[in-house]
Amino acid sequence: MSKAACRSGFAGIIGRPNVGKSTILNYYLGSKIAIVSPKPQTTRRRILGVLTREDAQVAFLDSPGLHRPEHALGRYMQEVAKAVIDEADVLVVVIDARAGITRDDEQVFSRVKQAIRSGEARHRTVIAAINKVDLVKKPLLLPMMETCITRKLFTDCIPVSAVTGVQMDVLLQRIVAALPEGPRWYESDQPTDQTVVQLISELIREQVLLLTHEEVPHAVAVLIETFTPEPQLTRIEATILVERPGQKAIVIGRGGDMLKRIGQAARREIERLLGRKVYLGLWVKRAEHWRQDERILRQLGYLS
Ligand SMILES: Nc1nc2c(ncn2[C@@H]2O[C@H](COP(=O)(O)OP(=O)(O)OP(=O)(O)O)[C@@H](O)[C@H]2O)c(=O)[nH]1
Ligand SMILES: [Mg+2]
Description:
This protein is an alpha/beta fold. The chain has two domains: 3-178, Rossmann fold (3-Layer(aba) Sandwich); 196-299, 2-Layer Sandwich (GMP Synthetase, Chain A, domain 3), CATH 3.30.300. 36% of the residues lie in helices and 22% in strands. The protein has nine helices and nine strands. The chain has helices at 21-29, 72-87, 103-117, 141-150, 168-178, 196-211, 245-252, 257-274, 294-299, and strands spanning 7-14, 47-52, 56-62, 90-96, 125-131, 156-159, 221-229, 234-242, 278-286. The strands form two sheets. A six-stranded mixed beta sheet has the order 2-3-1-4-5-6, sandwiched between helices. The chain starts with 6 loop residues before the first strand and ends in a 5-residue tail after the last helix.
């Protein structure tokens, strides 16, 4: 195939928290590149996932959910999302079909419009993906699609389900069609730019998100302390950071029960990732107000 016949570029996935952005990324990549949970603000970084096909290479950029930040970590997350809005060649704005178009979605639309108007955004194509259609009755979709059209922002409005796969092929086709012609920039065996250590830290955080509630998931970060491949297994030691003594008690659980559950579930996921046996040692440590602490945020890789 000639170079000119290949389309390639960045497809930014944006939207308010919890609408299914990371689930869409994982669907297209066919593996867990980004962690997913029912808790808002699961994704904290920009996550690259590269899909290589015969005729195209789509570099998806998953982003943190757009929201009003309350601390330095939140501000970092918003900067990351803003950079994705500006740098993508095509933008996919994800909406949750079950929630309808909310005020927070309207805020997202305004931010994209603003980026385009000010010339900061390099893209011209903005696609609305109304996700989670498996959860709603079809007649409810029509008014949402009409609302999207009246916003005069989207070139397409596509109802999809990243869980069942409904219309995900149509969405991909529109994304590819909107990319400029160009060569493949990434090797096809490099689906993400995350390091193994980053992926492992995320897999541990995912289990905390899935197993704990209320403010605890948001107050947690994971630091990988050691990563040692040995002949029989890989030995990993990690610290789970929390902000307050009460949160530490919850993450450890009665008699260490919760920490054990987090560790067992995360170990299984890490073993799947590495394809070998893993020993996972977990500790819980309190780092007061770490989400406001630039030194710790830098150590965690949230600030550069
Ligand atoms: N039923 C259904 N659930 C979905 C679908 N897509 C995502 N979900 C669920 O919605 C929740 C949030 O999904 P995520 O992919 O983590 O959402 P996100 O937009 O990346 O969220 P943040 O990273 O917090 O901004 C998870 O529980 C997913 O399993 C879908 O198409 N159908
Ligand atoms: Mg996410």
